[in-house]
Structure formats: structure tokens, C-alpha cells
């Protein structure tokens, strides 16, 4: 027996070595990309779509104090800013790449020396529990983060499973070693955000509780279970609540020290240890949307041991598996890093919102059991319907199908009977415009990915789109556009509704619902109602049918759009570029118009209004950092100069994505920016999800093999690829010349090979 | 079939009529007793031990505003004060007879005319939604309350099932009929008490949600489902939160009108109707400790129809069943009213805290399923261990056994590993002193009532009693008393612990745990350590073993006691009166000492310090309105003058209990005052629960038949009973002369007859 075991172990090590060598794609993941300036990504540890995303906070500044907005908070959407000199602690939930934020639950910070319960300031880290750190002592990998906390002489390491964070802190010898547990801290915090906190010290290694907040999500509760590898010697709490309210007979207890039953609005806790030099104190920290009981069950199911390296390794193996769905050959390491980091960032959100036993909290705040699917939350649909969900349909179809099921469960639970706009921990935060769930649902069903009750799904789409009291839909139905005098984003919403309606029509057609098809295909033409032929742009229209007089085509604020001026948004007719171009004067007129978008100079006064992006995130007046333009470079495909799509796409890939911390020119937006990168690198892009077409651009990879869930592979090859050879001379699909500018979903999912012949000259 | 059904119905009606005539005991219940001054009872509708106790609020004044205590709030412990001229509304939860308070959840008020969302003031009811009313138009019965709301010309009627309140409002013809739903209102409210409120308007007749508060219970959430008999035409909400915090994209909605998804800290809602003259609008309002889903399930299970009269009738039948456990003959209707209203008040608390599906919320805030018992909450044990639980052991043993199971579940869930002090909706509010759960548990097990794992129960008692950090227990264990320099109620707690320890010892003896018996029988003698022989009273003792110098035997505040001065508390050795009397100088000295307690005059300055009672609640210096003296009148049984017990008991029965609204001289204290009345009326009293003895007094009934759950009956007869014949000449038990001053539990539960021969002369 022992001999056999020895042999097995030997083989396993050998096999592991081999696997590691042949598919160590994790080496190309740099979570640090996007952590400087506007990317709003985080460098911490997570497994794909993990519920726990354990990452350092470099500051926890309030969103507002006493009603006044603090504009610096915007930097901290993901909690970490690369330029900051200190780390405040490590919290368990983060959004990736958002432009507004929340979360940052359960901040933990290991310290030594005098106990300090306030975080202190950046300029004087010694004034609180925070610590200076340097990037030289920092490592950020997929599912692994390490940093030296200089002020405390502690090495911090983080890894995770889906629902459990694993901290490993290597202490110096100290009689005053502490774990600070800050239950006040949070991302985008403000005075009133912490609604309630409840903590139980179950024994000298186990703590449970919950945190209830009123933030971007309105009624949100996260439950936790925290287990220490070593008993604490003592612990305590300080309550920072401003208004002291009646505490009744709780006054008979000293709740500040070694008291196991705590609750309040603003609490910070500490746990004390004595440590030997280089002693590791480990913490497993599990979350649940439902209960502390479930959190504990999650922890016990996911990490029934204390082997940090094993959790790290298993998580990185999971990442390798995820990343190896596309095997890429590229010109250099920098491109591989861009590519696999994009794949990494496109596998962080949405997050699993369900316990190992299948339970989750619904919008009605009741506990539900997911029936045959994994429930997800954090769906930033205005961003992600464009390329991210179509990307999942190819590389992660089961997961995308579960996301569709999650959206329909959300609909079933919705008091408003609406599909999610921005699904956010048993809430909708209603962020941004449109009802783009319908695009994701239609796309998944039309592409044959989601296998549930499609008629029910259509019903949910239709009910949502007919919700007259929601953001101008009533007027939109009655007049064919949203009047500018009634709504501040009347034009962009009209355009987005028109596209969404087209998605519903496509779904209805597939399901032979002619009545619904006709209703919505008609609505999908409403974009024409806000086109002002006299200026050649989309323009706000008043209730009386006249266009709004004061109008600036470069300005964003107050012009009827959200995140984009009319130069960008006028091109937002993804479902009918042909007619759009025709209305704008035909192909000949359209090409120079589109050219000037990329070449004109946007004056600083107007740039200041474009949200979420750096100056580098803009090319001319083309704003890559904001989503409404993401299909724009592909529009040359509807003209006689498709080579300009090829040229622009390669330029954007080159200009907008870099290896450094400031490598993203705008918010990654929950994987949408990254999904754009992946598609475009492969040479095609889903201009209008819910159609089965991917429009060709110019691949930047040398080759790529997409391993599909159905067992087939789809290969992209770019012959004579180089930085100069950005133009596509010829395309073969499975060896035959392709006489069109798109490929279909069936062609991809059926497996096969797409060969691009690259050239330095425009065709 | 139809014929048979007709016959059955006929028989049923006949049978019902007969039952009604022979046992319409509900006629003797006057819920209005105790609603004036200090009784703190409520007049509204409830079934026995109902989770919903639906009752009018005559004001909703805040406990504190901006940190300042509002002493008038004390009047409103149960929400209703008889002298008030207006009714603010009807809420669904109330404590009965407490001296501190909470609850008052979900206030509903029907109005007509202009919509008003604030309650207005007592002096100017027209300034808000409240209404003037008069007692002439008010009916308060068991499970039925009716009142005319003068300002709105609405007849309001209330009835309930265990978990569902049923409102019936008869409106005048009106185009402006409203149901106000005040989610800010509550009993003992203050600025910060409402932690969170969540409401969903599911459709035009169904509303669900929850209310989370931070009151006497710290982390408390109550879920509801509200169903209207008639669709509302429109509805709306006003948010009264002071600090306006970030609401994100919720701003895109008008949440004030017909918006179905609401949440916030301070909300009031309204629902509008058009009514015909005399049209009834009915509301079913169910509660759950767990979820809105469970609340709805409770409602549908308990009231699957809209027949108000049926719910009222079934609830009153339930009361008749409850009351008919003791059939009494008395001198007159007034005594019957006192007796059956006492039985009524002794069947209101604790309340069922469990859904129809068996789920309830535990102290860990997790959802638990009660395994083989009904879970109860609102256990005011410092009050009720004395006579109320012993009373339940006789007339309601199954229920008391379930209460014991509830206490042990509480213990299992407790982070502090303690049995409940004051179990309060998945919380302990820690009110008052001692650990009197152990008395209730020991009493139930020793009397053979609770059939669970007794060793586990003993373990819970012992663990609780050894909790060194709880209220001086550590010092109490080490020194044999609680030092006065460390604790403000050092003497009363020492005395109460000593009695509780004796209970544990008795339980240990029964379970053959000699080790535990010895530990706790020793502890039970600790009362001697605070007895100062030099003054003949219990007295605060310092850490150094000397008695506290400054000491006033009449004063209550700051003397080492809670709710009682040393005159009263020095007699609190219920488990060993014999030795107590001996220490106090022997029987001869003790009798005049005890006499003077009843005959002395307590100066006003000291009366002001006795909480919870009216001047009438005091007899001399004997404070019947506070529990520590409840056994005192029975102490003459340990002297040569037991006739003084008989005389005093009859005097207290006569003086302290009346038929009017002001009929209770002090807080009813969750049935304890009432249980004292019942026992004493029957002629015996459990001086020391956990012993099997009931000490004889003087019955005030002519006869009483106690129908036991085991099918037997125990009869009390008082021969020659009259108001003057208060002395007991002779007692027969089952026809044989009783040569002792007590009867045993076995003698009662075995069935039989206790015959008192009454006389106008002291024996």
C-alpha cells in the first residue's frame, strides 16, 4: 500500500509538472492592470466569478459626509489605487471596473504593537492601523495576492475559493499581535450606509455575523463566518455610533472586551494574539447571502483544512482551466499578458450569489433555492450586454445560461415585474439606461444556449419593455421617442430601447410569436424619430415634435445622452447600420463622417464631461472608455472601406490596452472592455447581440484555438501577422474563401478554422 | 348527503348553544381592567398566547428625543391609556403589563376626508390621522375590540387568530377613504429605533414587508403580509428620514405614489378607497419571525376566508376552552370578573414565536425549526417564575413544557451560553436580575411536567449559574455574596441567586447528581451572608466583608436592591423561611415584624421610588405591585399565627384587584399579578417553585373545579364562604383532615377535593 501510494504521488507530481508547463496561463495574468487611474480593477485574489473577492483597500474615504459629495471617492470604486502609499486592510467583496460602487465588506487588517482601532491617515499611517507598503514587496496573481506591511513587519497573503477568503499573515515575534476587524469600513461609505451589524464570537477561533447596508444596493445583507487557525487570547469592540440610543439592560455588560454577543451600527473589533517570529496566523472567511449558518457550511465545504498553498494552487488551476479555453499565439509576452488579463477580467463579474446548498436571497428578501442553476448577481447590463455576454456564450455557455436563469428569477421576484437593470445582491440598483437584459436573453436563446422555457423568457422581456412608468417607456410607446422635456437622457434611452426592442422582435420571431414580433420590430425603428436630418445627428426632441433648439454636438451634459455626446451616440443603431448610414446620407458621406470621429480634437472643456476615462481613453472624439462606441469601429464594414475597421481596431487594441497598472484607458466595466479586447484580438465582434453575426475586424493574435464546451474547437489563424500587417487581404473559413464580412454563431460553435491573410496594405 | 349535512348543522347549532350557555366564560373577561394608570394591560384582541395582539394605541409618544428621556412614555407600555381622548391607530404586537416596553408594530388607522400622514396631537386630533373616541362607543372582549372613530365616522372592529390580525372597518360613503399604514410608529419609540423597513406592494390587495428595530430587543425583525378585502384605488408613501442619503438610480422613480418597491428608515404609507355607506373594508394582517413568505403562509393557513364573525367566534371559543379549565363559583359577578380576567391576563404572554410551518428565528438570527414543541417568546422571567409558571404547570402543563423547551433552545443559540433572562423575539433584553429560568425548568421537571432530556436541562442551568462574568456571579461564587462596591443591586441579586441555586440543587437531587447538588445547595445558603443581625435586615456588604455604612431601610434607590426596599426584600428567602425566621430572632419576634410591614406608613418620599405601582398598590410598606413580596403574606404559615396569612391574603385580593380600568394596583407583569390572584383565590400559593408544595391561604371562591390535562379534576370548596369568613377553621383533603399547612403537587395532579371550612374568627 505504501509503495503504491508513493508511486501515485510520484506520478501526480510528474503529471502536475507537465500540466503546469503546458498550460501555465496564469503567468500571463496581471491583476494589477487597471489599478491605476480609471481602470477600477482590483489586484486581490479571486477564483472565476467568485462570491468572495479578497483584495487590499488603499483607502476607505467616505462617499459623502453630512450630505456633501466627496469626489475623490470615485478613485476607490474597487478599493485600491496604485499610486497610494498605504494599505488600510483587506476586504472580501469588490466590483471590478465599475464607475460607481459599493461593497468592501468586512475589512481585516493584521497589525503589531499598540492597538489602534482607527485607520489613520495616508500621510501619517502610524496614526492608525493602516500600513505603508511598496510595490516592490507586492505580488498580484490570479487568486493570490501578497504584500509586505511595512509598519507592522507582517507579510500578508490572500487566496480564495468561490465563497471563502483565505488570509495568511506571517507575523514577527510579538506580544501585541492584532487582527483588526473593521465593520464600519466599506467602499463608497457614508454616514448612514451601515444599517446594522451583528457579530457573535462563537468560541476562541470562530466568529459569525452579518452586515446590512443601504448603499448602491438598498436593502443588502451579507452574512459571514470567520475562522482563525489559532485561538485569540482576547478580543474587543468599540462602537463608533454617533447617536447613543437606549441600550436597556445590555448596560449590565461590558461589551467592549471579550463579550461575544455584539450588535450596532458602527463597530470595529480586534482579536489579540501572541506570535513567534515568522508565525503564520490564518483566517478563513466565508460569505453567504442567506445566513451565518450557510456561511459556515460554505466554509466547511470549500476549505475543510488549513493548507493555504493548496487553496492557492487549486484556485490557480481553476484559472488555468478557465484561461485555457482560448490558447493564443501572439507576437510577444506583452500581448499574451493583455489577452489573458482580459480573459481574467472577463471572468470576475458577475459573481456567484448562492450558497453551496443552493440557497440565495431574492429581491423579495425571502430565501430561495436555485432550481437547476447557479444564481449570479452583480450584472452591470448596460455595459456587458454588448460583448461580454456574447463572449460568455462562446467560451462559457453554461455559465451564461445560468446568468439568464438568474435574470429570470430576478424578474419573478421583482415587485415591479421587471428584468434586472443592474442586479446587485438581491436588489436592483437601477444604474444606467435601457432594458438590456432582453439583449442577453434573446442572444442566449437565439444562439441555442439557454434551454429553459423560452415563452416565459419572452413574456418577461415583453412585460419589462411595456412597463410604461419606467423611464419614459410610456411616452416612447405613444410617441415613438422619449420627449426631451420629460427626460434628461431622452435620446440615448430612445436609441437603446430601439435596439432592445429589436432583440425582443428577434426572439419573438424565433418563437413564432408574430404578434409580438410585429409590435417590437416596429418599435425597433424608433431610433429614426430622434434623428435630425438637418444636422445629421441624433438630437433631443420635444413633446411637441420639434427638436430641442439649444444643442451642442460635442457636449455630453444636458444634451439628452448618458456617457456620450451625439457624435458618439448617433452611431448607436447596432441592429440596422445600413439604414442608419442611408439616413445619414449614404456610404460616401458616412465614411468621412466616421473618420472625423477618430481624427477630430475634442476640446478639454468637453472631455471634462466624459466620465470614467483618462485623456488616453479618447481617440479624437471616439471614446473607447465608454461603452456606447464599442461597435463603432466595426461600422466601416457597412461601407466600401472595411479596411478602416481593420486599421481602427488594431489601433484601439494597441492604444487602449497596456501591461502596466494604468493599462486601461477607462473603467473595465465588469469585463466589457476586456471582452471587446478578446473579440477584437480574435478578429471579429458581435455588433448586434441577438443576431447570430460576428463582424470581421483584424485579428491581433497570430493564432488562437477556442476550445468549446461542446468538445469542438474553433481556430483563428492570422497568416503573416505583424504590427504593420493590420489589413486583411483574404479570409478563409474552413479553407474556403469567405465572401462576406461576418461569420455566424453556428460557424463558430460548429468548430472549424478561420484564416486571415494579413497585409501591410489596405485592400 | 344534503339531508345529513342539514342534520349535522342542526345538531352543531344545538350543541353550540348548549356549550355557550353552560360555559360562556368570556362574558367575565374585561380586557379593559388594568388599562388605566399602572396596569399596563391592553384592551385589544388576542387569542390565548397569540403572536398577534391587535390593540388600539392612544398615543405614540417617543421614549426619547435627541437623547433626552421622555418620562410620559412609561404610561404607554401597552400602547393604551384609558384616560386618553383619542386613538392613533391599531397595531399588532403588545406586551401585557410590562414596566418597560417595545413592540407596537405596524400601526393601521382608517380615516376619511383629507389625507393626513402624521398622527396629529391629542388636543387637536383633526391635525392628524388620529381620532377622538368615547368609551361609550367602545367594546373590549376577549378576542374582540370595537370602537367608533368619531372624527372619521368609522366603526373599527378587531379580532385575531394566533398569527393573524383581522380588521373590519365600516366606512361611511366616501370618495376619500384611507387606510393609513404607519411604519414609523411603535411603542417606546425613539429617533434611531427604526433600523430598516421594507415594503412590497405585491398587487392591489396584497402588501408584504418587514420592520427591523433596535429597541428593548436589540436586533429584531418582524415580517408581515397584509391582505385587503377590496382593491385599493391608489397608494403612496412618505419618507420621513432625517438624513437624506445616497439613493442612486432609485431617483429615477417617483417612489411616493403607486410605487410597489419601498424601503427606508421612516416611512408612512396610505391606501385609498372609495366606499359606499356602511361598506366594510377588511384587512388580514399576518406576522412571521422569519419571512414574508411565512407570514403569507400563516395568513392563508389560519384565515382562508373573509368571515370576520367566524374568526371572532372561533377565537372566543378558544378562550372559553382556556377559561373553562377552572370553573368557579363565587360570591358575585365582580369576583367572577376578577377571576376570569386574571385567567385571561395569565394567558396572553408569553407569545407563540413560530410560524405554522414550525420555523422561527433564533438568537443567532438563523432560522430554526422547532422539533416537537411550539416555540414561545416574551418571557419576563423575573416576574413570572414566581406564580405564573407554576400556575401553567397545573392548568396548562403542555404549554409550560413547550416554554421550557423554548428556553433550552434559547440557551443552545445563546452566544453567552445562558438561559433566557427576558426572552424577547430572538433576543434577550437582559431585563431584571437573577437567572430565574432555572426555577421554571426545575419546577417543570420536578413536577414531572417536562419530559425532555433532563440532564441537558440541568447542564444549561448549571452553565448559566456559573457564568462568572454575569452580574457579579464570579464574586458571588468566590465570596458568597455580591459586593456592594461592585454592583448596584448586590443584595437583591444575592438573594435571588441563592433561591435559584436551591432550584438547581433540587433538580440535581432528582437527577441523582450529588456533585451538583452539593455545590448548589451550599450556594443556596448565601442569603445568610447579606443578613445584618445587628439591624435585622438584609444589607449591602462591601468587598472587605463589612456592611455598607450608609443605609436606609425604607429607601429603594441606591440601597442594593431592585424594585423593593430591604423591608420587603429581607423576606426573600422563599426556599428556607424557617431558617430566615430563626435568623431574624425566631417566630415570636418575626410575627410583629411582619405585621408592621403591612401596617406601617411608607412616607411619600420613599413611595416615589417604588416603581410601577399606584399608591393603592401599597399596603403599609408591603408592595403588592412589585413581585418580590408576592410570597410574603404566606410567611405567617411558618409562625404560630397562620390565620394572619389568611387575613392578609383576603385583604390583598380585595384591595388590589378591581373590576374597573384602574383595577390593577401595579403592572400586571405578564400574568404574574394575575396568577397570584388565581392561586390565592383558590386558597394556596407556590411560595418556592421547584418545591412540590403549595402553601395554604384563604380561598375567596365558593368553589372551583380545576380540569386537569390528565383528565382528572381537582376541586376546591369553601364551606361557609363569605367576605367576613376569611379564616380557615379546618381543611379536609379528600375528606380527611389535613394536618399541615400545604398541599403537594401530586395531590393536585392526582385529582381530588380540598375543602376549607371558613369562619369569621381567627383560629
TrEMBL record, chains A, B:
Gene Ontology biological process terms from the UniProt entry: carbohydrate metabolic process; glycoprotein catabolic process
Required cofactor names: Ca(2+)
GO cellular component: cytosol
Record keyword Hydrolase present: yes
Keyword flag Hydrolase: yes
Pfam families: Glyco_hydro_92 (PF07971), Glyco_hydro_92N (PF17678)
InterPro entries cross-referenced by the UniProt entry: 6-hairpin_glycosidase_sf, GH-type_carb-bd, GH92_a_mannosidase_put, GH92_N, Glyco_hydro_92, PNGase
Ranges in coiled-coil conformation: none
GO molecular function list: carbohydrate binding; peptide-N4-(N-acetyl-beta-glucosaminyl)asparagine amidase activity
Record keywords: Calcium, Hydrolase
Domain Glycosyl hydrolase family: 294-759
Residue stretches making up the Glycosyl hydrolase family 92 N-terminal domain: 28-288
Subunit structure: Monomer.
Full protein name: Sugar hydrolase
Amino acid at each position: 500500500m505504501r509503495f503504491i501510494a508513493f508511486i501515485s504521488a510520484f506520478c501526480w507530481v510528474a503529471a502536475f509538472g507537465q500540466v503546469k508547463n503546458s498550460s501555465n496561463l496564469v503567468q500571463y495574468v496581471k491583476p494589477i492592470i487597471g489599478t491605476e487611474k480609471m481602470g477600477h480593477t482590483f489586484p486581490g485574489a479571486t477564483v472565476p466569478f467568485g462570491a468572495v473577492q479578497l483584495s487590499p483597500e488603499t483607502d476607505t474615504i467616505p462617499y459623502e459626509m453630512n450630505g456633501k459629495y466627496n469626489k475623490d471617492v470615485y478613485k476607490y470604486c474597487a478599493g485600491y489605487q496604485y499610486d497610494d502609499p498605504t494599505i488600510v486592510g483587506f476586504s472580501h467583496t469588490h466590483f471590478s471596473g465599475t464607475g460607481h460602487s459599493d461593497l468592501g465588506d468586512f475589512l481585516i487588517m493584521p497589525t503589531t504593537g499598540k492597538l489602534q482601532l482607527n485607520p489613520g491617515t495616508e500621510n501619517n499611517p502610524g496614526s492608525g492601523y493602516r500600513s505603508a507598503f511598496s510595490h516592490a514587496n507586492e505580488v498580484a496573481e490570479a487568486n493570490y495576492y501578497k504584500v509586505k506591511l511595512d509598519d507592522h513587519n507582517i507579510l500578508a497573503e490572500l487566496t480564495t475559493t468561490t465563497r471563502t477568503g483565505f488570509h495568511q499573515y506571517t507575523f514577527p515575534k510579538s506580544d501585541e499581535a492584532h487582527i483588526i476587524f473593521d465593520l464600519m469600513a466599506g467602499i463608497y461609505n457614508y454616514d448612514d450606509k451601515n444599517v446594522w451589524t451583528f457579530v457573535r464570537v462563537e468560541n476562541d477561533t470562530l466568529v459569525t455575523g452579518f452586515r446590512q447596508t443601504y448603499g448602491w444596493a438598498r436593502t443588502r445583507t451579507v452574512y459571514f463566518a470567520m475562522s482563525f487557525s489559532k485561538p485569540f487570547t482576547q478580543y474587543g469592540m468599540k462602537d463608533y455610533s454617533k447617536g447613543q440610543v437606549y441600550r436597556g439592560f445590555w448596560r449590565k455588560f461590558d461589551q467592549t472586551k471579550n463579550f461575544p454577543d455584539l450588535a450596532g451600527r458602527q463597530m470595529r473589533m480586534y482579536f489579540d494574539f501572541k506570535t513567534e517570529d515568522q508565525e503564520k496566523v490564518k483566517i478563513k472567511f466565508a460569505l453567504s447571502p442567506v445566513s451565518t449558518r450557510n456561511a459556515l457550511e460554505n466554509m466547511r465545504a470549500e476549505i475543510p483544512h488549513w493548507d493555504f498553498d493548496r487553496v492557492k494552487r487549486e484556485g490557480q488551476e481553476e484559472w488555468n482551466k478557465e484561461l485555457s479555453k482560448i490558447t493564443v499565439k501572439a507576437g510577444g509576452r506583452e500581448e499574451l499578458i493583455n489577452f489573458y488579463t482580459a480573459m481574467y477580467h472577463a471572468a470576475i463579474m458577475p459573481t456567484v450569489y448562492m450558497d453551496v446548498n443552493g440557497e440565495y436571497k431574492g429581491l423579495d428578501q425571502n430565501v430561495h433555492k436555485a432550481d437547476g442553476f447557479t444564481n449570479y448577481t452583480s450584472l452591470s447590463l448596460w455595459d456587458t450586454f454588448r460583448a461580454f455576454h456574447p463572449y460568455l456564450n462562446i467560451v462559457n455557455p453554461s455559465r451564461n445560461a445560468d446568468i439568464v436563469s438568474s435574470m429570470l428569477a430576478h424578474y419573478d421576484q421583482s415587485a415591479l415585474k421587471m428584468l434586472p437593470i443592474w442586479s446587485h445582491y438581491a436588489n436592483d440598483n437601477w444604474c444606467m439606461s435601457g432594458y438590456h437584459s432582453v439583449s442577453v436573453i434573446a442572444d442566449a436563446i437565439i444562439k441555442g444556449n439557454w434551454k429553459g422555457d423560452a415563452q416565459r423568457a419572452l413574456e418577461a422581456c415583453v412585460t419589462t419593455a411595456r412597463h410604461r412608468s419606467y423611464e419614459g417607456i410610456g411616452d416612447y410607446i405613444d410617441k415613438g421617442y422619449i420627449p426631451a422635456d420629460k427626460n434628461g437622457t431622452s435620446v440615448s434611452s430612445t436609441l437603446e430601447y430601439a435596439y432592445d426592442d429589436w432583440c425582443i422582435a428577434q426572439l419573438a420571431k424565433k418563437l413564432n410569436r408574430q404578434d409580438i414580433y410585429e409590435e417590437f420590430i416596429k418599435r425597433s425603428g424608433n431610433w429614426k424619430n430622434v434623428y435630425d436630418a438637418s444636422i445629421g445627428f441624433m438630437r433631443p426632441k420635444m413633446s411637441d415634435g420639434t427638436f430641442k433648439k439649444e444643442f451642442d454636438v460635442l457636449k455630453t451634459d444636458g444634451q439628452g445622452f448618458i456617457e456620450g455626446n451625439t457624435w458618439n451616440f448617433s452611431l448607436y443603431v447596432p441592429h440596422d447600420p445600413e439604414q442608419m448610414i442611408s439616413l445619414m446620407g449614404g456610404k460616401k458621406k458616412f465614411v468621412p463622417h466616421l473618420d472625423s470621429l477618430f481624427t477630430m480634437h475634442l476640446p478639454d472643456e468637453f472631455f471634462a464631461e466624459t466620465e470614467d476615462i483618462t485623456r488616453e481613453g479618447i481617440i479624437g472624439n471616439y471614446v473607447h472608455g465608454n461603452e456606447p462606441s464599442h461597435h463603432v469601429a466595426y461600422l466601416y464594414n457597412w461601407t466600401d472601406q472595411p479596411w478602416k475597421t481593420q486599421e481602427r481596431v488594431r489601433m484601439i487594441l494597441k492604444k487602449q490596452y497596456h501591461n502596466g497598472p494604468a493599462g486601461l484607458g477607462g473603467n473595465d466595466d465588469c469585463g466589457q472592455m476586456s471582452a471587446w479586447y478578446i473579440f477584437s484580438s480574435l478578429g471579429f465582434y458581435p455588433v448586434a447581440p441577438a443576431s447570430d453575426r460576428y463582424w470581421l475586424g483584424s485579428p491581433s493574435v497570430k493564432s488562437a484555438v477556442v476550445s468549446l464546451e461542446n468538445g469542438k474547437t474553433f481556430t483563428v489563424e492570422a497568416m503573416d501577422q505583424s504590427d504593420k500587417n493590420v489589413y486583411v487581404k483574404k479570409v478563409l473559413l474552413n479553407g474556403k474563401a469567405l465572401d462576406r464580412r461576418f461569420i455566424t454563431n453556428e460557424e463558430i460553435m460548429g468548430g472549424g478554422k478561420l484564416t486571415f491573410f494579413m497585409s501591410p496594405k489596405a485592400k
